[in-house]
Amino acid sequence: MLEQSQLHVIEARCTQEAAPRCRTACPLDMDVRAFLESLAAGKIRDARKILERHLPLPGVMSAVCDHPCENACLRRDLGGGLAVSSLEKFCMHAVPSQTRPIIRPPKPQKLAVLGAGLAGLVAAFDISRKGFAVTVFHEGDAGEKLRSDFPSLGEAALAEELRSLEKFHVSFCPASLDEALLARCLEEYAAVFVDASACDLAPSRDGLDASTLLWKDKICCGGWTSLTPTGARYASASSQAGDGRRAGITLQRIMTGVSLVAAREGENRENRLHTPLDGITPLPRIVPEGDSYTEEEARREADRCIRCSCMQCVKECPFLQKYKEFPRVYARKLYNNASVVRGTRTANVIMNGCALCGQCEVICPEHFSMADLCLESRRDAVERDVMPASAHEFALEDMAQASGPECAFLLEDPAVSPSGGHAPAMFFPGCQLAASRPGQVLAMYRYLRENLPGGASLYSSCCGIPAYWAGRETLFNEHAETLRRDWESCGKPEILAACSSCMTALKKALPEATVTALWTRLDKLMSDSFESTAPKDMSVQDPCGARFDEEWRRAVRSLAVKAGIHVEEPLRSGPESACCGYGGLVWNAQPDVADAMAKKRAGEFSLPVLTSCIMCHDRFASETESWHLFDILPQTAQEGHLEASAPGLSARRAGRAALKEAALEEFLGEKPSVRHDDEPVLLRISEEVRQSMERRYILRQDAVEAVAGIEKTRARFLNRENGHFLGSWRPRNVTFWVEYTADADGGFTLVKAWCHRMVVAGAIQPSEKVILEDKVHA
Amino acid sequence: MALDPNFTTDGGDWICAKCHVPLEQIKVQALYMHSAFDVILPRCPSCGLTLIPQSLAEGKMAEVEALLEDK
Fold first, then answer.
1. CB–CB of A752 and B67 under 8 A?
2. What is the pLDDT of residues A115-145, one digit of tens each?
């Protein structure tokens, strides 16, 4: 399980919660983005609440601030930084005060402030709001320093803020700000603040610790003047107020005996938030017609805010969009999920909704990987036996079928094997290409045997990627052992893989083997151009497994060019390519997310799409015109079926079994002992019912076995209104219900099928719990 | 977490085809992942064959299954 420290490292990579530039530029940590968002929505009262929550002396600050946020604004080169200062002024005038802080009797410790400059008054404001009494010593009258430093400050706003300070136990005391006063304050007060703009006793800023502004003993300083680039001195309201606030935190800690430096990292904010600016149209700053903004003008100006935000990965991924958060939050939720001992694991859906495709890691400027996080969470859940059984069960059963006796086979090249030799290459089509295109696989094998020096073997099985994606490491390792045994028995040939997921899995399972993309080898074998019936202009899809496999991607494009196809690169191609929804078994755990992925990606192709992974092809086929490389290569194009839709789940299983029969018959002369399409009953299934079964992961075989079993035991219901029979069958962890009619010819017609996992006494015969790991290699 | 206890068929005049008797709403136990619930379902009063309607299997039952799997 993830350690908390590891979580923090992972979390830190997602900058979505980091402050936007306006806020990091503000020494007072003003939430400018939220303020503008409220104004843009016409919520002026909410906007003022935000001002009052963040700004000390809001009436003064909004009037005199030199707004460093405006220079930092990312709109600066896109029409001009937001007019934050003018909008703050508008807001302060448009609505009255929105907060009523409670005035409590003061605590025993008292603060002395020497000098009524802006820093001194901000320190007094912050400390008094924490419930401490403050005495501000000043020369002249209390407002004189502010009036001279900030001539634009209105008398009414100043008087109002001074009155407000007095209500919060701030008293003003005219005095000469000299050594004697400082000495007296050190004796009589718990802490002292010296305002450098009003009191000559303050040292220069350089000699002080910038993070605490502690001068000596229990004295803090702040409020120095700033320098313009040309060397002129001026009073920066934001800088002075920022000093007052920073020193105020130190002073409060001095008064209450808390560490002056602990947990203050948050005060030094860096610009960490990544905000992509592509696609943002420049909009000129709204200039008020009169002296200040009207409500309408203010709303329009605030609406220019681009609402800095990263979300680059979320924009691309339907899974990340589904739960309306971003990776940092997902990381936290997954961590909490793993910590649940008793209770509901609400983040199971998060870990199982990821396609593990790796796109976010490439797109993210900090390379945050949801795939690593979700895969690790799955492994952890499997290890602690809390992985929801239904999430990947169908996919793992499919893996068991593909690597079981019905479908898996290893065919050594008949030209060399009788003499005990081995071919130097092994064609590994992958279980999905075998399922979808058995005829083309066989045709490609014939070509490879004839054209590769020394021939080739053919190994049809599962590569193990479903177990890897499901987080079942034991199962993956056991499967890897089977693969190794078979590979070694063939003399450790170079493996030619036609599926990028197989490439990924085989490289993990057999790190010592040479695994090459079939396309790379074909591109070398086929030096000349060839005829193809494919469209002459196509979009190309890079499968997520080939994200980092440049050779694969280059070979695919080269073969396309030889077929006379002009390839158009869609948005996010190459390493940034998006998943079709097959990755990570999301098609099994959360079909709605997988479908959204296929739909989104297919929508990004402006032309018919050329795929090099059969699952990409099959998942796009219902969305757009889709071609697999096998459909354009002369060796295989004739064997293909150019149906618009991809084969269903039952047809895929039948396809794998058919490949085995056909290969063994053609190359070894073995006659199939039992025809795979022999079924115990004749069951008619309409296309509509078949599609409804697909959505429920009910195989034809399940329905056939159910009807056959029910007819044998006669344990069934009869609907006297229409003559339909209904019964259930539980071959494994799922109960299948079939509603059907008995036809005149002794066959049956399926009307409906549904399934559930719960066991109800009398509804089924509870079978033994099937342990997935055992089933795969049974 | 509980199943609303009483579920009838999704329409139709269903009988037990083996015993030729109409179904009755009878309390049975539903089990999943070490949890058990009482639920009233159409059942043959003679042989005990019990019907789980599609609306229950794909509605409440699926919801409870998911909840228990995440427990």
1. no
2. 999 999 999 999 999 999 999 999 999 999 9
